[in-house]
Amino acid sequence: MATLPNSLPSLATSGLGLPSGTLVDATDEGPWHEPLLWHADEAARPGDWGALRASARTLGLLPVLVDGGRRARWPAEWRLAPARTSYPGDHDAEEVLRGFREDNADGLTAPGAAEDTVWPGLSPAPAGGTPEDPDVLAGGIADMFTESPEGPRFRMGLVPARRSADIPAAIGWPGPLNHDSDVARLCAVLRSWEDRFDIRVLIIGFDTLIVSVGRPPTTLVQARALAAEHFAFCPDNIDQNPPYGLELYAERNLLDQSTWGFWWD
Questions:
Q1: Residue partners of 260: CB distance under 8 A and separation at least 6
Q2: Quick one: CA dihedral 5, 11, 17, 19, positive or negative?
Q3: What is the Rg, in whole angstroms, of the alpha carbon atoms belonging to the chain?
Q4: Are the C-beta atoms of 221 and 120 separated by less than 8 Å?
Q5: What is the pLDDT of residue 216?
Q6: Distance CA 31, CA 24 (A)
Q7: What pLDDT band is residue 104 in, cutting at 50, 70 and 90?
């Protein structure tokens, strides 16, 4: 794998017209040899995500909203772990999900959960094309978050990555640490979802992730099949958050939904 040039050190002369911000190189093992991401020191504004998606990608940088949460906990405090992060392309999404499913099969025996614990395979991509450009859709959803009452908790970020699905691995994000210590394995799944469902990594927090979905399931059959993948990817979404059980999760959280949210305990 060729190393992606990191344009973050030269942001000041990039011509992007960025606001004042912070280059983050802090990791769980001390300063990294180069910045892992940049984020603004002020709240993101409507239009920021879309504008940077268009302008910064020529520099090998992709936008993401950074969520400081209610405690204003920003990435320098996240204990980023790039040293223990592999490359997403080295992992097979279905193998990763099958392994997770086997490890967490006990959760499916809870009341209201699906009885079949056999791995069903990857859900096929919904038929038909995407009605809207996935990047345009993601920019519109980003604007909805920045315009919401919780807008001040989101700051604009830039990450050196080839594709949106790789953003968590590019910074060594430890959010799912209690589920898997190598986030690149989860990014292999995000890559698969990017290919099948046109997702974009939209918001990243200390232990939360929100993606936009350009081509969501449009039938309950599709949504139920995808719910099995979500349970493997993030069992806490179903074990610890209502609606409990794959059936209700599929209907309420996946069917025709333009965002998917994840949280790891």
A1: 199, 210, 211, 213, 230, 253, 254
A2: positive
A3: 18
A4: no
A5: 96
A6: 9
A7: confident
What predicted TM-score, i.e. pTM, was given to this entire model?
0.93
Tell me the mean pLDDT in the region 243-257. Answer: 91
Closest of 121, 123, 130 to residue 198, by C-alpha: 130
Condensed to tens digits (0 to 9), the pLDDT of residues 55-74 reads: 999 999 999 999 999 999 99
Q: What is the pLDDT of residues 196-215, one digit of tens each?
A: 999 999 999 999 999 999 99
Q: Give the integer Cα–Cα distance in Å for 125 and 193.
A: 9
Residue 263, judged by CB atoms within 10 A of its CB (0-12, 13-18, 19+), counts as middle
| Residue 221 pLDDT level (bands cut at 50, 70, 90) | very high
In DSSP notation, 5-72 reads: P--GGGGGGSS----SEEEE-EEBTEE-SS--EEEEEEE--TTHHHHHHHHHGGGTEEEEEEE-TTTT
Residues near 51 by Cβ (< 8 Å), separated by ≥ 6? none
Q: Which residue has the tokens 């919780």?
A: 150
Maximum CA extent, the chain: 57
